[in-house]
Amino acid sequence: MGYKSVIVGTAGHIDHGKSSIVKAITGTDPDRLKEEKTRGITIDLGFAHLKTDDLIISFIDVPGHEALVKNMIAGATNFNICLLVIDAKEGIKAQTIEHCNIIDYLNVENLIIALNKIDLVDKSTVRHRIAEIETFLTNYNFKNVEIVPTSIKQFDSINIIKNKIVNYAKKYEDNRLDFPFLMHIDRVFSLKGHGTIVTGTTNFGSLKQGETVTIFPINFLSKVKSIHNHNDVVPNVLPNMRTALNLSDVKKSDLSRGYVIHKGDYYSTNIFYAKIKIFKKLNSEFTIKSNKKYLIFYGTDFFYAKIILLDKKEIKNDESTFAIIKPDKEIITYPTEKMLIRSGSPQITVAGLTVLFCDKLNLQKNDLLTFLKYIDDNNLKSALDFLITQQSYYPFKNLHQLFHIPKKEFIHLLSILKLNTFSNIIYPESLLSNIIQEALNLLKNNNKIDLNSINSFKNLPQLLKEKIISKLKTNLKDGNYFFVGSIVQKKEQSEFEKLADNVLSLMKEDLSITNTANISEKLNIKRQKAEKILQFLQNREKIKKISENIYIPTYTLDKIITSAIDLAKKDGYIDIKNIKSILNAPRKTLIAILDYLDSTNLFTKKENKRYLSNLN
Q: Partner of 351 for a Cys bridge, out of 189, 278, 481, 601, CB 3.0 to 4.6 A?
């Protein structure tokens, strides 16, 4: 599409003029419902947009009435920039405070405050309101704040706001494209000739026309027939984009606001871990107690959940702690996601929670706290290292929901910690090699072992067990072993196999034993039998034929090549004389070995000397 998409959300008390300012900026009235137009207030989310240069700036106009804050939250979770509207006559009111608590917790850094209706007050009042707002904002952590005295009757003030929004939008960046597509549904409707349409603001990723999406929680697969952005047909979706998807094979009655559309790369959970923070700026003191149920809003949905505080029995205003959250239904979430907690009486947003981990952990309380603190500090290296150290391995459901970082960053993290992945399991490089070495050590003194007798093997998932068995088979391929499940047993050797092992041992010890005649004479056996033994050993790659009638054990030959390279580096060359310093063998065998070295391409022969090829 070629555009960057940015979401601007409104906030503020009821009737302070949010919708009017959005209409003045965009030319579109965001109040779409008949009741909204009749009553002059925003009841549900309203939408408008502005295109400029290479930007699509989407406006989400949220309701300011206290009873409709749940609708405000549904929009606020996607804000990149916030336009906070304050009536110059009334100043800071209840929903001004509640909305600021929400957008501050959601880490909306860019805040433009429209001090509205200045045409209805004198200049002294405007100055007083600005000072009041500046003092009020010291309670929050907004990074960039602009206060603009505004009136929809003064077009210059509207243009100032518009230009500030565009400037912030141009600078706004995030990495949301690095994750699979996900969008919370905020509207469902049908159009004659098209079928079912769902709308929402894209959280992550990209999506193209013709692709298949999963609809959660019904887990229904549907093909995307077309994609719209503010009534324009577009070929693909971008993060932070107001998106309408025309879905196939699903009825409007099957869907609901709060459902999630994704590309099948997300899993749901009924337990997750979070850090909870009660807001400082509340009209009265509020307490969250452990093992109690609370109403939690996320995306465009909500749920009740039991909150189990991990290191405190209760928390109050401006306090925070780590907690286990147990929703009353399955939800799709991910680390870093922000949720909001509402009280029932009075109805007010009292706290926020940040998801830290969204899969069940089998850690003791103190270890769990250590792990969550690492994540909260964004020390993901220590978090992952601690998790693997505690559990030996970790079976993940997908990487991007584990810590919610781009795949390339996770791969780098694995590399730093010397961790591997096999299928969906993270494990340290040393885990498998240590188990294999322990098994090999046991087999030195036993003809039969059960791998499950090794504790570190016994508790592994089946996939890792199979990987270890496969590696052991490779290690033991020449040792006459067979495997039945986790049992490793040495085969009973025939008399011929025992004799062949004896011959191999003699050949390793004595380089004068290299052919049928030597073996026949040394062991007092017939030449025909000696020839069969050499063929048997050669077929199993235990020995190599390096010239006519000369065989050398493969292991020995590899050591000779290494020693020859070292000698050539030391003396500058090797020949029939200096090779005797590293080998005790008959001259005929030494000549055969020198000729074999020529065939490796490691050496170049000039006259009677061999030089390392890479030194010429």
A: 278
pLDDT over 70 at 232, yes or no: yes
Q: Which of 7, 109, 79 is nearest to 50 (CA)?
A: 7
Hey, is 1 helix, strand or coil? coil
Provide the percentage of residues in the chain whose pLDDT is more than 70: 92
Contact 49, 57 (CB under 8 A): yes
Among 52-61, 63-72, 140-149, 565-574, the minimum mean pLDDT is found in: 63-72
Give the full edge-to-edge strand order of the sheet including 481-484: 448-450, 487-490, 481-484
Q: What was the pLDDT predicted at 72?
A: 53
| Confidence class for position 38, pLDDT limits 50, 70, 90 | very low
End-to-end C-alpha distance for the chain, whole angstroms? 58
Instruction: State pTM to two decimals.
Output: 0.76
The structure tokens listed for 597 are 């070295």
CA gap 609, 615 in Å, rounded: 14
In the 8-state DSSP scheme, what is residue 578? G
**Is the separation of the CB atoms in 519 and 513 below 8 Å?**
yes
Distances (CA, A) of 398 to 176, 259, 264, 326: 17, 21, 11, 21
| Single-letter amino acid, residue 541 | E
Close Cβ partners of 421 (under 8 Å, ≥ 6 residues apart):
414, 427
pLDDT mean across residues, the chain? 88
DSSP letters spanning 55-93: EEEEEEE---SGGGHHHHHHHHTT-SEEEEEEETTT-S-
- Work out whether the CA dihedral 149, 151, 154, 155 comes out positive or negative: positive
Residue 123, pLDDT > 80, answer yes
Peptide bond into 149 cis (omega under 30): no
- Checking if the pLDDT of 42 tops 60, the result is no
Phi, psi of 438, deg, nearest 5: -65, -40
- What single string gives the DSSP state of each residue in 356-419? EE-S-----HHHHHHHHHHHHTT-HHHHHHHHHHHHS-EE-S-HHHHS---HHHHHHHHHHTTE
CB 148 within 8 A of CB 164: yes
Please give the C-alpha separations between residue 142 and each of 100, 107, 110, 276, 505, in angstroms, as whole numbers. Answer: 10, 8, 7, 19, 78
Instruction: Give the HSE-up count for residue 183: Cα atoms under 13 Å, Cβ half-sphere.
Output: 26
Best CA proximity match to 548, nearest among 598, 592, 503, 511: 592
Query: Other CB atoms closer than 10 Å to residue 351's CB: what's the count?
Result: 25
State the CB neighbour count (10 A cutoff) for residue 314.
12
Structure tokens at 362: 């089998």
Cα dihedral 456/459/460/461 (nearest 10): 180
Q: Are 18 and 10 in contact, with CB atoms under 8 Å apart?
A: yes
Q: How far is CA 564 from CA 242, 545, 575, 594, in A?
A: 70, 19, 10, 9
Give the integer Cα–Cα distance in Å for 18 and 63: 9
Q: Provide the pLDDT for residue 36.
A: 32
pLDDT at 592 over 90: yes
Residue whose entry in the numeric block shows the structure tokens 């702690």: 321
Among 295, 321, 293, CA closest to 306 = 293
What tokens were used for 201?
Answer: 């603001």
